[in-house]
Amino acid sequence: MTKINKLALGLLLFPFAVLAQEIDFSKVIPFDSNVKTGKLENGLTYYIKKNGKPENKVTLRLVINAGSILEDDDQKGLAHFMEHMNFNGTKRFPKNKLVDYLQSIGVKFGQHLNAYTGFDETVYFLPIPSDNPEKLENGFNIIEDWAFNANLTPEEIDKERGVVLEEYRLGLGAQKRMRDHYLPKALYKSHYAERLPIGEKEIIEKFKYDKLLSFYKDWYRPDLMSVIIVGDIDVAEMERKVIAHFSSYQNPKNEKPRLVYEVPNHAETLVSIENDKEATYAQVQLIYKDYGLPKKVVTLGDYKKELVERLFTSMLNNRLDELTNSPTPPFTYGYTFHGSTWARSKKAYQSFGLSQEDKQLEALKVLIEENERVKKFGFTLGELNRAKSKFLSQIESAYKDKDKTESENFVWEYQSNFLTSEPSPGIEWQFAMTKQMLPQIELKDVNSFVKEFIKEDNRVVILTGPEKEGLKKPTEEDVLKVLRFNSDEIKPYEDAIVATSLLRKEVIPGVIVKRESNDKIGTKTLFLSNGAKVTYKKTDFKNDEVLFEAVSFGGSNLYSDEEMKKVQFANDALTDAGFSGLKLNDINKFMTGKIASVYPYISNTTEGFHGNATPKDLEYLFQMTYAYFTDLNLDTAAFEGFKQKQSSFYKNLTSQPNFYFQQEFQYYLNVENPRFNGLIPNEKTWGETDYTLAYKKYKERFANAGDFEFYFVGNVDNKIMEAYACKYIASLPSSEKKEKAIDLGYRLRKGDLKKVVNKGTDPKSSVSIMFYGDAVYSPKEDLVMKALGEVLTIKLVEELRENESGVYGISARGSMSKVPNGAFSFSIKFPCGPENAEKLTASALRELKKIIDNGPEAKDVVKFKEAELLEYKKNIKENSYWLSNFKESYINGISPEAVLQNEAKINAITAKDIQDVAKKYLAKDKVIGMLMPEKS
């Protein structure tokens, strides 16, 4: 039985009529009283909330209730173009001073500072430090300028055309070609089908300047705007700033109406079957569109209906998951939900499936049958109780961490409230009301849910997949025939008995032989009787989170070359067999309502586990770890099911030009590595795969727990940790053997080289410039290599994007590693037009050469430090950061205490350090990989 609080347990077990409390379902859902909201006289709406995670930081967001749907015919793409222009200069920050200033205070362009344009909205993100009045004021200056004071000069508009066209180019390919055919049916006779946010190439290239000015004037106006402020701030001060910065602006005198564009209904079933030579997978979409506009969730009755909908979705998707995990899965992935389509004004009941390329009709039939099975027979009481338990545990976990929630989560919530009137009552209200309502939801409520959605009109079926010789394409009549199937053959769902335990073997506990504490980093270490070490750190970063990692040296480098080829693609299948005699579906059912997961892995040089749990479900994490160590199942049928799913997903992946390029480039680089067997399995490698051998090697890798170190970070209790460590870890089999990471000596191809790969018909290229080689590992040089990547990225964006308008995105990354051999790696990567690939490669190398010859500019070093220090101050209060630090310290053989010196290390980096590393490692050989279209 699920571990939940006594009240919830009683509500789930006893007759609902006995415990149900009276609820007035006509009452309106309240708005969270902890959020300051208001509307200025000009119509601008604001939301302000004080939230201390992360500390000394505030997230500002400008939301415009206007997107591409409002463009005129000669403005297609200009809503998105306007978003770009707001980063190219405003009244207070002309030209590139906006990005330059934000980088100087640690805000990275593209990572922190960003925006997006949709059909119905345009949204700008600006996270900034909140502990400096000047920075805070400038944050408001920026969002004010975005709203009303963009510099739309002809010179800057023309420069940005190239960047937007590069973003347009990124979207070219099989998915776009197929979407252009099926979207007019999915959005039948709708304005949405003609207003994709990226726009039209010809308009982007040639639009007159006044068209962009008109869009900005018409739609960037106070009554269509919201300013959202969440962070470590003073609420009253923020409200004064909103009033000061936005009250003076007025709406246009003859403002255009903000129309809502509906998606018309249709009597017939619309079918779209699209195939493309570059399509990588086969997909089925079954869409039943609602008749009217989406109903707003206003009352408690509406909230109850939403709960019913979530329970329904959870139960149906559990059934689809069970089919996916079966020995003969009908699809790689199946999912059903009721929610938004591409259009804000239309919701739909939708079922999806990723299938084998020649089994789309069979996958469609399964989706239809499962919907019909629910419609005809409903769910079982066991399914409903498990779904309630799962939902309650999730919302309870969110409630427990209500004071540890990241500001970003609140911002998205208030954005939805502004744009679509989604309720925002706060987690306290949601948790209390959910506990009260769940017992009153009966099987009849959930079973009747699907009946209003399954219908024969307003229905769309979309099949997309690869096109190749010998593959028969389904016809529209084939699809309609599947839809007309005989439901008399459908039988009720049989709910299997739920397991009573994750373990079937008796556990004989060990003991703790020694304890150590490290007060500097707040850890305790337990030395166990079988030689295993358990180190844990209690934190208050999250109330309801414990993260877990276990690691041991060894890994697949201990396999022979021949063994590696046989097991490489079977390793990921091992966990699909389950453990303790339980199949994957048995385990998933047992774990319903419990939040705990563990995943074993085998890398080249290590093996181990990673996982997470809530404090109340922590024992299940330990039990799963014990089971994966001692009682993994051997199940050839499960492997065949895994192989079928993987084959259907990977079979056509190399038809996608960019993936084909990556694989061919890796073959080129790994020409001297006999263990390199491709990035994905194919018919040949599947034929060589030996599942039984993979199982045997896994058992070898996890035969000796005494060679492992176990790490836990989060809200842990000393007594509980000691008890579970003794019972589930000290009891694991072990030996005195200690393994090391082995360097097999295989290296990537060396020299000053270039590899050009021709693939694809679209005018798209991709460039990868790589520097790598053996090196003596140095923690300082590792950090400096990262700094070099960041400062070079700044220069590459300035030159290749802003000055040359040749790329949409570009990045440089550098690092060093110690295991299994000391090495460095540095790369520059960017997509571009084929006609510019050589020129932009030369430009990128020229920017690197400037740093090698002259060192980086001082202002760029400052930008790196500011961003890195902000990240460090945030990360040092994250459980995941500490867990990663423990694992990396183990692998690199350094003290985990070194993390406390990171701030000093960052501040100590000089321009000369960066120049020296660039000279030392990047002035020598390089390897260039270049994807070019196929030659006609």
Give your account of this protein's structure.
The protein has 936 residues and is of the alpha+beta class. It folds into four domains: 36-246, Cytochrome Bc1 Complex, Chain A, domain 1 (2-Layer Sandwich); 269-401 and 421-489, Cytochrome Bc1 Complex, Chain A, domain 1 (2-Layer Sandwich), CATH 3.30.830; 512-653 and 673-729, 2-Layer Sandwich (Cytochrome Bc1 Complex, Chain A, domain 1), CATH 3.30.830.10; 753-932, Cytochrome Bc1 Complex, Chain A, domain 1, CATH 3.30.830. 41% of the residues lie in helices and 18% in strands. The strands form four sheets. Strands 12-13-14-18-15-17-16 form a seven-stranded mixed sheet, with helices on both faces. The radius of gyration is 29 Å and the shape is globular. The chain starts with 5 loop residues before the first helix and ends with a strand. Mean pLDDT is 95; it is low at 1-20.
